[in-house]
Amino acid sequence: MRFVHLLKVRKKKITKKKTRFLKNNPQVRGTVFRIYRITPRKPNSAIRTLAQIAIFNDILRRKIFAYIPGGNRTTRPVVQWNEVLYRGGRTQDIRGAHYKLVRGNRGCPGIREKLGSRSKYGTKSIEIALKKLVVKRRPFRTKKYTAR
Hints:
Blueprint: H1 3-7, E1 27-38, E2 48-55, E3 63-67, E4 83-88, E5 99-101, H2 126-133
Parallel strand pairs: 3-5
Antiparallel strand pairs: 1-2, 1-4, 2-3, 4-5
């Protein structure tokens, strides 16, 4: 290796982000434009629920595809024109779905029946849900008077 080779500076490779519509934010707001169901890629077989989301405050009014986790078994589904939060995270067996909806926030309700992995689906614990239903009352206190 010669001295001339040591002087040359290597250029860093510019990596393209797959979730570029997050704009370096953990979650971004959007409006549900359309909801539809598709089948996944070859080895898997199911019906997956997707949402086409119009990005909020976007000049070009671009739309992205986001996967709705637990979308097929909700009692309160995500409705069109709801305002939702989406985050990064690719769904491997769906083409073009590089984002996921955040459950239990804004227009995307949580799943009530979920017992495991509750934080992913916006479900409160059973104890907290029961405490909200039952109103606790304070015990009646009486002042103790001493004879003078």
